[in-house]
Amino acid sequence: MQLTTQTDYALRTLMYLATREQRSKAADVATLFGISAHHVAKVVNLLSRFGYIRSVRGIGGGIELAIPPEQIRIGDVIEHIEGNLHLLSCVGSDESCRIHSFCKLRGVLAEAERIQKEYLKSVTLQDVIPTRKQLKPLEQST
């Protein structure tokens, strides 16, 4: 499985916000990671729609986590952003092919997906956030 750039940016945005005590701007996230502000803005809209972050307009506004980091499961975020993560289309459906009646591969891949999903749902944002000390060199170089 390879995640899309959109999911990568969503996870980075959540990690960044988890290190902040105050609201931030999407542009701050983009600058820190050296990524497109336009793409971060799109991701912010998605994360807001899914309830992971809160966006506040006006003076003193910005973006912040809407849920504590220990309650945000990485697997849930990935599922929300990515949607279907099946290794083959037949794993997630009753779609059949010529060898469907005797194919053992579908079961193997379904089990691999189950294990991966279970693991990703066991990891929280709290488990993966960098420390302020780790981010400091990146902040100074921007």
UniProtKB/TrEMBL annotation:
One GO CC term on file:
cytosol
Q: Which GO molecular function, any one, fits this protein according to its record?
A: DNA-binding transcription factor activity
Q: Is DNA-binding included in the keywords of this UniProt record? A: yes
Q: Magnesium among the record's keywords?
A: no
Organism in which the protein naturally occurs: Thalassoglobus neptunius
Protein name as annotated: HTH-type transcriptional repressor NsrR
Superkingdom of the source species: Bacteria
One Pfam family cited in the UniProt record for this chain? Rrf2
The gene for this chain is nsrR_1
Instruction: Show the InterPro entries listed in the entry.
Output: TR_Rrf2-type_CS (IPR030489), Tscrpt_reg_Rrf2 (IPR000944), WH-like_DNA-bd_sf (IPR036388), WH_DNA-bd_sf (IPR036390)
Q: Recite the UniProt keywords alphabetically.
A: DNA-binding
